Write the structure tokens for this entry.
Amino acid sequence: MDFFEEQEQARKRTKWLVLWFILGVVGVVVAVDLLLFFVIGGGEAFGILVPASIGTAGVILAASGYKTMQLNGGGAVVANDLGGRLVMPGTTDFEEKRLLNVVEEMAIASGMPVPQVYLMDGEEGVNAFAAGTEPSNAVIGVTRGCLQRLSRDELAGVVAHEFSHILNGDMKLNMRLMGMVFGLLVLSMLGRGLVELLRFQRFSSRRGNDREGNGAVMVLFLLGLGLIVIGSLGVFFGRMIQAAVSRQREFLADASAVQFTRNPDGISGALKKIGGLAMGSRMSSPKASEASHMFFSGGGLFSFGMATHPPLALRISKIEESWDGEFSESQLRPVAKGRGLDRQEQRGGQKGPLGGLPVVVGMAEMEAMGEGTRRQVKTGQEIYEAMDPEWRRACHDREEAQALIFGLLLAEDDELRAGEISFLEKSAGKDAQVLALKWQEKVWGLHSARKIALIDLALPTLRSLSGLEYQRFLEVTRWLIASDARVDLFEFMIQRVIERHLGSHFEQRGFQKVHYREFGKLWKEANVLVSVLCELGGESEEGAERAYRAATEGWPSVYKREKMGSLEDLGSVLDCFDRAAPLVKRELLICCGKAAACDGKLSSEEAEMLRAIADAIGCPIPPFVGNLEEALN
């Protein structure tokens, strides 16, 4: 399975989603016109059908637009609406810590920033969701029932399912769908409000104006009831669209979770427990209907043949062909069950050298850039467990996480570093300066896979900064990057991570449109990136030229290798590809990968730059590492 292909398919489905939404609006408008025709009377109704139609469509479109703008805030908006509570990285709760560990390991293995995690304490069914407009503001939400009733492997299967929705583009599609469905539901909400307002209205038996007033109230009351009925039609269209969009994508996410975890028993075990549980995956939140298509399993809402998820039995049988058809019973976890063992695992510890890691190279590896086989949660687990526990603790502390990033940005040259230390003490305080020096010493010489993992782990903590703290953090990092009058590639990578992932969270950039659908329209920009990687990896002019020819095979002959310009220009190029279609992004990354690995070697710096390019254009790719067990033991 190719995630770039799946992202492209999800993008194309958006066009059909808009068409279905338009048909739903037309259906509701016609129903409102018929209601007016019967309530008011044929002759009088004809005069107001046109303005009524325009008004009805306007209300639906305005409500949909309002909800879509609200969702620009990212997945946290959905999580809060569903009653979720942000799980802080420093939590001491055993179940919450286990959940965070699973999410962090999968994020590291995927090469994406760690999403924020929300827990729905009041939901006892087994369910989960992923929400966000892009990976930078994605969140993973799980119910309390997930933590209480699932084993670690089963929880990993559920989380891997949600990660696949993020990586293959379903999450963004689901968010757009949520905005549209809200527009179709709004008439029912207005009808209920009108009925509630009028049902206690007193009627008068007097003649004249009072009777006319009674008639007006009765008409409004009937209109309210009619809007409720018509709103049910909107619900019908919304459910139909949700079902059409999400059913097949659930099978894809299940298959991806198995591929990711290499453990089919995990996700199938979770599905079996849902089937054997009286409350199943039921959601009690009043907002659950709007987001039913986003859940791991159906939320127990009415469907009438339009369920947003395939039947549990069908999903299990596709994962486990020899399944006997029996669901599993589940009980609440015994108090402190297995806590001593898991705490020992959580302490982890360094299992080997923190410097070199075996690097995967080869043209086949580059061609398989988007293949799901490259994403293995085992890789994330091994990188995560090999980290010093002190590092993980620092990533989870909102003050030390900032100092850790400052340490990664400090110059290696003593003279330049002296000026940076002085600025850091003035801007962030003496303690920040001391901690930054400490972390610079500790991370010296780390492989890019470990450095990037530290940054990804720190991102959820940094998202908890206040607006003013974020602005200060951004100003300090920008100054440290520019202070030595040059920006090396690793500093550039950190800058892109900060600007993209934290900026998306704090500035609420919302849904991004695709501007480039053909690679040929970005030849010039692609040439800049390929040339940079050739210059970076080429040990000689001849080697750089050889790498360039390998990467640009089949390109128009007019393009030649360029000398590396400013990284500001490079940032503009990355911004162009950030607005490109998924398959265009894949073609770029394959070309860049061929340039970097042409000599059969992929240095830490080359891997760092390649993943920085992928991250900057919204395509997180896994670490380029091989057999970690051999390296870490």
User: Anything to note?
Assistant: The radius of gyration is 27 Å. The first strand starts at residue 85 and ends at 86.
